[in-house]
From TrEMBL, chains A, B, C, D, E, F:
Transmembrane segments: none annotated. SMART domains: Sm. This is LSM domain-containing protein. Residues 2-73 form the Sm domain. One of its GO terms (molecular function) is RNA binding. Pfam families: LSM. PROSITE patterns: SM.
Length: 73, 73, 73, 73, 73, 73
């Protein structure tokens, strides 16, 4: 399964996304994704030092600033 | 709704944009957006430590340096 | 007006450009711009802590390293 | 062998990937890769100071944030 | 003159290039440039704190990591 | 000679590559390169403070994270 297909398979599921910059980690429901890995998440929260810090709700993430995507079980 | 369509749906609304770099956070009215997520905002202010710091007026943001986009309610 | 059209409308005018990296801020006359937002500025000066620091004259800026563009009134 | 073909030849093998940012180093089984070097790894662990730190399981890595890829023998 | 044409007009001339990262500044003769602003310089020296530090000879610079290009008179 | 042709002319030769991030410098034999400047090096070593630090063997480097490429004589 190619990386972009793997992402598509995660739609509707909770994922963890590590962004570039000051160690931004986000968790949310993956609602859509395009081929650039731009992501639209809902019910998103920001994770700092392993704890939920800010409730962000719905966010759009720019693909090129995503470092790593994990499914959350 | 794909990420770029979600962005289009926010035109005319206030959004919060987190840019790469020294934790630049901007709030403004989304006036236009292209497929690279380059954004044109008006009535923009810079947010530092949760407070409005600089009034920037109209700005153009380069899509690849955008980390995250939020609607502001 | 799309972001790249907005940029075109600023040709001949003074703009302020924030670049990635150590808070590089430049002011100059926008002379040309392409679709990648690569910019050619003339009469450019570097701004540090709100003061004019270095006169740079004519410069070419790589679009992907531009964070934000502002018209200067 | 072109870089992307070399990557394809590593599918099914353990690789070490150095990501941009706070010296993220990951080791995992390369499961798929596309032409942008987006990678899908399984059985992934994070390496900090030469020691295995976090078990991440399956991850997707954005190609443009990959600095270096090594086969692990 | 578009930014890439301006670059072409500098071939054979000495330019100063500011790269991303730890304030890398290079001076050299621009020998060729492509549309991505990848540059091939000869007789290149590295500038640190306004002084010539390392003689690098011929170098290839990746366009997306170039912040700013200046002609040197 | 265009930058990408210059790179092709270095195949089979030892090059020094400066990567983005914590001043990663690598030396190795350039084995292949594509138009994005993705590189495949063999007999690679990492250089820190001018000294050889780690033997890395064969590595793939992502073009957009390359700052500068030098031939090594």
């Amino acid at each position: 399964m190619f990386p972009n297909k793997k992402i598509q398979s995660l739609i509707g599921h909770k994922i963890r996304v590590e962004m570039k910059g000051d160690k931004n980690i986000l968790e949310g429901i993956l609602t859509s994704a395009d081929d650039y890995l731009n992501l639209y998440l809902t019910s998103t929260t920001e994770i700092v030092d392993g704890e939920r810090k800010r409730v962000l709700g719905s966010v759009i993430l720019r693909g090129n600033n995503i470092v790593m995507i994990n499914p959350v079980n």
